[in-house]
Amino acid sequence: MAKHQTSFVCQSCGAVYNRWKGRCEACGGWNTVVEETGAAYPLAGPVATRPSRAKGRVFPLEGLAGATHEAPRTPSGLAEFDRVTGGGFVRGSVILIGGDPGIGKSTVLMQVSASLAKGGHRVVYISGEEAIAQVRLRAERLGLGDALVELAAETNVEDIVATLAQGKPPALAVIDSIQTMWTETVESAPGTVTQVRGSAQALIRFAKSCGTAVILVGHVTKDGQIAGPRVVEHMVDAVVSFEGDTGHHFRILRAVKNRFGPTDEIGVFEMTDHGLAEVPNPSELFLASRDHGTAGTAVFAGMEGTRPVLVEIQALVAPTSLGTPRRAVVGWDPSRLSMVLAVLEAHGGLKLGMHDVYLNVAGGLRISEPAADLAAAAALVSSLSGAPLPADTVYFGEVGLSGAIRPVAQTPARLKEAAKLGFPNAVAPNARGDKGERPIPGAASIGHIADLVAGIAAAARPRPMPLQRRREG
Ligand SMILES: Nc1ncnc2c1ncn2[C@@H]1O[C@H](COP(=O)(O)OP(=O)(O)OP(=O)(O)O)[C@@H](O)[C@H]1O
Ligand SMILES: [Mg+2]
Ligand SMILES: [Zn+2]
Asked: What SS3 class is residue 346?
């Protein structure tokens, strides 16, 4: 098996072929298969590093109820970061953190490292991309120049593991980034799938054996996937993405996968001159630059994990000049927009076939909840009719294909957050809350999409809405 040979490896998913292919059969990517020279390795499974032995070693099996003496988690001290990891770093766990170039990965990780070091833990920060002077400069700018973080600019994984294993194992080791690391056990060039996978494997093995929590920084490709192998995502304990667009100053940390915690929590930060500042109340930030009194905007009372988040949904519905009207959406699921539009046509009596539709979630937040349906529908109807929605009202509820508005979870929490931020009114299904209480005096229960359209149309005096005659079934 140790014979040197060339293999062809998909740089996107890690599939291995024995000849070049224009299109990867495993993931369907075009031009992703690249020739890599190196020791032959099995077509499936992990990279072979040890020769197989004829006879296995017998190891003792342990009971589930064994005693674990160490505290299970080490909080980083940055509340928004800990919220995403599920309360801090688990001993020996490996976190992959991905994000666009320049989004602030190195910045947030330097802040986490310094915070942990201030708590008396040993922290090592290995940069494969920047010189030590650059890392120091950043730390100084962040006001963390005096933190006891141990630095190195290294890329050889064997050297790194040997250094980390010396003395007391660090509580945290940051590897910035995994794409720059290379291991001697693999002959391919750094940055290739095989190298990234081999390096990650060596670092993961170190984390598990020494109990050090390891953070791997990963670059992200244009389509938002962590570059290189998806395989690394399966190998690590948690995958966290750092999002936000560079035009906005806030950044969102979101767990995509987490073996030790929830995956629906987000951490919100604001990029400032002094690094990333935590945002304990994101709703205030998302609603800060709202236009009052314009048609086409609705405030959605959403939930991100256990935390209610209020955000503005903006819609623009305008007559099209093209044969096929445009549908564009930022921050929401395009197929949900299509569904809401179809329901508005079929059950709300709206005619949208000759209109371009644009939908945007303000501030760069990405919403995945179906509860946003009603807010999106309200913004769309408002834009079409030219009637601004009441400025003190939030909207939430799932829209069914029949036009019925279905109740959503955690209604009381949403209503409470809305009331706290100065929205005394709500349009939602079952606005009374789960136990029949009425947390908001102005909360109006809504049962059907037609009621929403009728309610907004009633306010739209100046310009009549292009309504179809509604067919009663
Ligand atoms: N002097 C400065 N003042 C304010 N903000 C700065 C300053 N220097 C850098 N920044 C901000 O920090 C961001 C870069 O952060 P950082 O280097 O942590 O990103 P990164 O995600 O690690 O990028 P890369 O993928 O290149 O490693 C810049 O986009 C900028 O917004
Ligand atoms: Mg960086
Ligand atoms: Zn592939």
From this structure: helix
